[in-house]
Amino acid sequence: MNAANSSQWLQPAFNDPVLDAQTSFRSALKALAEPGLAQPLNRALALESLHPATYALCLAFLDGDTPLWLAPRFDTPAIRANLAFHCGCPIVAERELALFALLDESELADLSAFDNGSERYPDQSCTLLIQLDALSNGAPLRWRGPGIKDVRCVELPLPAAFWQQRQARSAFPRGLDAFFAAGDQVIGLPRSTRVLLNAEEAA
Amino acid sequence: MNRDRPHSDMQHSDPHIATRQRWMGVLARAGGQLAAYESALKEADYRLIRAPEIGMTLVRGRMGGTGSPFNLGEMSVTRCVVRLADGRTGYSYVAGRDKQHAELAALADAHLQGAEQPHWLSRLIEPLAAAQQAQQGAKAAETATTQVEFFTLVRGED
Fold this sequence. Notes:
Distance between the termini of chain A: 55 Å
Largest sheet of chain B: 3 strands, antiparallel
Number of helices of chain B: 4
CATH superfamily of chain A: Bacterial phosphonate metabolism protein PhnH
Shape of chain B: elongated
Largest sheet of chain A: 6 strands, mixed
Mean pLDDT of chain A: 91
Number of strands of chain B: 3
Strand order of the largest sheet of chain B: 1-2-3
Strand order of the largest sheet of chain A: 1-8-7-4-3-2
Distance between the termini of chain B: 38 Å
Low-confidence stretches of chain A: none
CATH architecture of chain A: 3-Layer(aba) Sandwich
Low-confidence stretches of chain B: 1-8
CATH class of chain A: Alpha Beta
Helix content of chain B: 25-40%
Oligomer: heterodimer
Number of domains of chain B: 1
Order of helices and strands of chain B: HHEEEHH
Radius of gyration of chain A: 17 Å
Mean pLDDT of chain B: 88
């Protein structure tokens, strides 16, 4: 796809590229530092089916060094053109090569191919950017771990298969970090957070 | 930074691209002269896809033009992308830190891609190109008076 064909899809991104990117990155950091607490992320406009928070995460995180895997729902000419223009990130077809993945809820049943880092470089894992319709009204689950005093109850509307997949890919320090975005809010789920799936684990 | 380099040898084989390269080059070298056309260029509705932003770029050179590349140094560059109401998109990359220049050059590039291309070529590009050529000629003439020629008869190497 060359520039002459894709320029018709281009939209403005952040109003203030420097400040908005810093603010969005800060919100994302806070989301990971306090897992389960929704953080505001409203500096971008929606881009087609991408919510403002999801697009702001993309604009803050992605650049020429971060290969991105796109879920089929987001693989449209407009999203490709704008990510290529504003972020300059390569879009890869193989999940194994991706440092970031842009997912919707239909992709959460199989996370096996994404890179969860190595013992020596656990930081090189793939970070999942997951767009949901809402960040509440799911089954209440109790989260605990760094950044959470005692226990935090989070109601993300996620299929049970996601939690199994996350568990399967987790071998600390290896694992997958995730951001859940909806509307103009984001919730972080780092690999260090333990999610209690049933009452017996509470003790 | 050598702005006066002859660029006829770098022409693209596609005539459309070659013409656009030429006007983008003229616009990039125009500097403050574009301000005179500001009201005409801003007549049409437009929005900024990428507001003018200043950055650095690494300039590389080749020894003698053909050797292996080396890093010459960094220079500041301002770039801008605009979209006219009818969807035409104009790009600009200009040397220096003049945001106004970058925005006007991008606007001119967008206008030059439309149906009124001959109008803009004759009104904007040709006068600017002529002025740049005259300036370049004057500078070359001024430099030529200081030229010194060295002759080596026998170097004693053979």
